[in-house]
Structure formats: structure tokens, C-alpha cells
Amino acid sequence: MDDHRAQVEELLADYRRSREQLASVQRELAAVCGRASSPDGTVEATVGSGGKLVGLELSESAYRRHRPEQLAELIVRTVAAAAASAAEDTYQALSAVLPSATDPAALVAGTADLLPSEYAVDDTETVDLGRQPVRGRRDDDEDNEQRESWLDSELIDRRVR
User: Fold this and answer.
1) Domain locations along the chain
2) Are 54 and 47 spatial neighbours (Cβ–Cβ below 8 Å)?
3) pLDDT digit string (tens) for 39-62?
4) Which pTM does this prediction carry?
5) What is the pLDDT of residues 134-158, one digit of tens each?
6) What is the SS3 assignment for 8?
7) Mean pLDDT across the chain
8) Distance (Å, rounded) from C-alpha 90 to C-alpha 36?
9) InterPro entries of this UniProt entry (predicted)?
10) How far apart are CA 78 and CA 90, in angstroms?
11) What is the 3-state secondary structure (H, E, C) of 92-112?
12) Across 8-12, average pLDDT
């Protein structure tokens, strides 16, 4: 009986350690912050956890140095660099709790257990949601056509009756 009690206590201790490690990683992830500046220093971007833009500073000279479309492009590039920096911090925080063979970037992207052929994006299937391309199943269009033709024929049959 004492042997089982010792095993249960050991399992509980392992669980508590794992839980504390997970809480620590969650705190690290919540504190992720990536910063970047444009090469000319006129744009500074700060990106928080999850790639969310949390700060953007434009120097007064940014408006004089760049035409609007150039400034917009510079902002996008600077924010992307800040997001890449935040992503690296995210990957490092996750690496502490992931098995050594797991790619943190693939885990965050949602492709860790998929083959490249399962998540490869075909340009004809891409929908831009402002963040990441989302693809539909290849057979969705075919299924929809079959479903629509089936519905159409059923509607026609009802009208004829």
C-alpha cells in the first residue's frame, strides 16, 4: 500500500512540476514583444504576442522623406520585421516544453503533424483574410456543384408535381 501511495505522490509531484512549467511558458508567451525600426529610423513598430501590432511610431521626418505609398510600404516591412522578431521569441519559449524533434514554427502555424502536401497552398484556392492564406479542400467546388445540381433537380421535381 505504501508503494502505491509513493507512486501516486510522485505522479502528483510530476503533474505539479509540468503545470508550473506550462504556466511559466504561458507567462513568457504573453510577454513576447518584437521591435523593429526602418533602416532610416523613421518608423518603429512593436508587435506583441500572437503577432498583434501594439505600437507604431512615425518620426515627423517620415512624412517629409517618403511619399504616402512609400511610407505605407515602409510601415508594412517594419511591422513584418517586428512580427518576425516576436515569432522568434515565441518559438524559443515553446522550445523549452516541446519534444526536441518538434518544430515550434510548424506548431504555431498549425502544420506540425501534417505533411507539406496536406497544407500546401494552391493560388487558385487561397482566400486572403489579412493574415494568412486559408485554403479550401480541392474537392469542395466539385462537392458544391454536385450538391447544387442535386438541389436544383429536386426543386424542379417539386415544381413539376
Assistant:
1) 30-114, 121-161
2) yes
3) 999 999 999 988 899 999 999 999
4) 0.61
5) 443 344 444 444 434 444 444 444 4
6) helix
7) 78
8) 16
9) YbaB-like_sf, YbaB/EbfC
10) 18
11) HHHHCCCCCCCCHHHHHHCCC
12) 92
pLDDT per residue as tens digits for the range 96-123: 888 888 888 888 887 777 777 776 766 5
Who's near 138: CB < 8 A, 6+ residues apart?
A: 122, 125
Backbone angles phi, psi at 41, to 5 degrees: 75, 10
Residues in the chain: 161
According to DSSP, the β-strands at 53-58 and 126-127 are unpaired
Sign of CA dihedral 91, 96, 100, 101: negative
Helix (H) / strand (E) element for 43: namely: strand 43-48
Residue 15 pLDDT class (50, 70, 90 cuts): very high
CATH architecture of structural domain 30-114 = 2-Layer Sandwich (3.30)
47 burial class (0-12, 13-18, 19+ CB within 10 angstroms)?
buried
DSSP-assigned letters across all residues of 115-146: -HHHHPPPGGGEE--SSS-EE--TTHHHHHHH
